[in-house]
Amino acid sequence: QEQLVQSGGGLVHAGGSLRLSCVASGSGLSVIAWDWYRQSPGKQRELIATLTNGDMENYDDSVKGRFTISSDDAKNTGYLAMTELTPDDTGVYYCYATIFTGTSKRRAWGQGTQVTVSS
Hints:
With about 120 residues, this protein is mainly beta. It has strands at about 5, 10-15, 20-25, 30-40, 45-50, 55-60, 65-70, 75-80, 90-100, 105-110, 115-119.
């Protein structure tokens, strides 16, 4: 069974930076697409960044120019580099991957990681 394990996150002052990581584990898999979602307090989970085929990036306007999505295909790892953080970026961040196992395509969520930005 494929799993996504996240790391990174934590508490940072406004204007600071963080990098989130998400590792896909399982035998014989490759990640076709990475997505990052954010769930802010009292709000629904929202899609903030996508990476398809390793080079097609898209961002929500709220993070465009400040966040960068990337991946290391050899390590089956996705990243979200976050800069110029503001208190509005506070929330739980989830990675979501589209995984090809060699015979089928599956999708999986990471466990989520808390990011808190203090003013």
